[in-house]
Write a structure and sequence with these properties.
This protein has 15 helices and twelve strands. With about 425 residues, it is an alpha+beta fold. Strands 1, 2, 3, 4, 5, 8, 9, 10, 11 and 12 form a ten-stranded mixed beta sheet that branches.
Length: about 425
């Protein structure tokens, strides 16, 4: 396959410093490990119709910061840095800084924002982890947030001279177009897309009915109301109802992407607290997980959705793991076309991937997803008493990212 040929030519450069090698090394506990002591997310609201449609990004952040500080009892004066992953709100640094101050975080605590589209939240975790590794930060917050209601994807503008380059032209095209290009080029049928979409919808519906998402959702008080349950999940989705939906973009490619087999658009936020193992033990913090490493790759913009097939092998190789070593994968479902191709090309059992559904069912607030998948994956590992999480996503304009985490929140050691 073209993807495999491209992967074989891709240089495997290290993306994270001090990455341990091999499963025994990764599972070791060292004082300077970067660990996660808190990982929670908000409930998600449907774009323009849901519970957060009238909530601005700064209000959402303020509520998340306040709820986190209250639940963890973390002294905010001990926070060294905050990084917020977000994509399209105007002046994101100003609004993030204002939200932190309004939540009671002292003005000596700095903040930054990062935008690498769908991986922005994972990049926030990566930025804080790298700062801790470098000795520049001891306790940091990594946040992912977006309101697709307030700030939907704008139409990118480039100059005529730049647009003459074919790949430059492709990298600013609508994401739906890339979905159809993947489906057409890699022969991902509408039936296959709907099959994977039904898996996502069914798993998320079952998880919500069982109350599973309550383990990862921190209730937020916003404008006098408590938001604690996703309103994006659609019970009752069937193969027949998916098949009956009309293509959203019938003039592009095979016209196989629908509102049922593409990620939902929504509003939400998620947060992780990171520190060193030594500092966590000193402060009496519960250690949930260990951050291991991350990787970022590029690919053809036209087929941006297939990037996890490059990002996942890269991050596994740089830490000396095999795909079979991973207990849970959280791979973003931007579109069923690219998700189906990635799953089948990677050869990972679907039972290990998004066991409680993914973005097709739960929704995909762009900046939130990178943290949300870590929160969701770690919560699932705790339930399963598993060890290793790999999270990955494609990124608009032709990129992909992946990360490795070790679960430490289990009662009985697996190994």
């Amino acid at each position: 396959m073209l993807a495999r040929r491209l992967l074989s030519r891709a240089p495997m450069r290290s993306a994270s410093t001090h990455a341990p090698q091999g499963i025994s090394s990764i599972l070791q506990k060292n004082p300077d490990d970067v660990v996660i002591t808190f990982a929670q997310r908000s409930a998600i609201g449907r774009m323009k119709k849901g519970q957060l449609k009238d909530t601005t990004v700064d209000e959402l952040l303020q509520a998340l910061f306040k709820a986190t500080l209250e639940k963890t009892k973390l002294d905010p004066s001990k926070i060294d840095d905050i990084c917020v992953g977000t994509c399209h709100p105007p002046s994101p640094l100003y609004t993030s800084r204002a939200a932190a101050l309004a939540a009671g975080i002292p003005n000596h605590v700095p903040i930054s924002t990062v935008n690498r589209l769908c991986s922005s939240g994972l990049m926030a975790i990566r930025n804080i982890a790298h700062a801790i590794q470098a000795g520049e930060t001891s306790i940091g917050l990594a946040v992912g947030v977006d309101s697709m209601t307030m700030h939907p994807r704008p139409t990118p503008q480039i100059s005529e001279a730049v647009d003459q380059n074919p790949e430059a032209h492709d990298c600013i095209q609508p994401m739906g177009w890339t979905s159809e290009m993947v489906a057409q080029t890699y022969k991902v049928s509408r039936e296959t897309q709907d099959k994977y979409a039904l898996i996502s919808h069914s798993r998320a519906t079952e998880a919500q009915a069982k109350g599973i998402f309550a383990d990862e959702i921190i209730p937020l008080e916003i404008k006098g109301a408590v938001v604690s349950v996703d309103d994006t999940i659609r019970p009752g989705v069937t193969a027949q109802s998916l098949a009956a939906l009309k293509p959203v973009w019938p003039d592009w490619g095979a016209g196989s992407t629908t509102a049922g087999n593409a990620s939902g658009t929504g509003d939400g936020a998620a947060i992780c607290i990171l520190t060193t193992r030594a500092r966590a033990e000193q402060e009496g913090m519960e250690i949930l997980a260990k951050w291991v490493s991350s990787a970022v790759v590029g690919c053809e913009p036209k087929y941006m959705g297939i990037a996890p097939i490059f990002a996942i092998p890269k991050v596994l190789e740089q830490v000396g793991l095999k795909k079979e070593d991973i207990d849970v994968y959280e791979i973003n479902e931007a579109f069923a076309s690219q998700f189906a191709y990635c799953v089948e090309e990677l050869g990972i059992p679907i039972e290990k991937i998004n066991p409680n559904g993914g973005s097709i069912a739960i929704s995909h607030p762009l900046g939130m997803t990178g943290v949300r998948q870590v929160v969701t994956g770690l919560a699932e590992l705790k339930r399963k008493n598993g060890s290793l999480l790999c999270t990955s996503m494609c990124i608009g304009s032709g990129m992909g990212a992946a990360g490795i985490f070790v679960n430490e929140a289990r009662s009985v050691s697996k190994l």
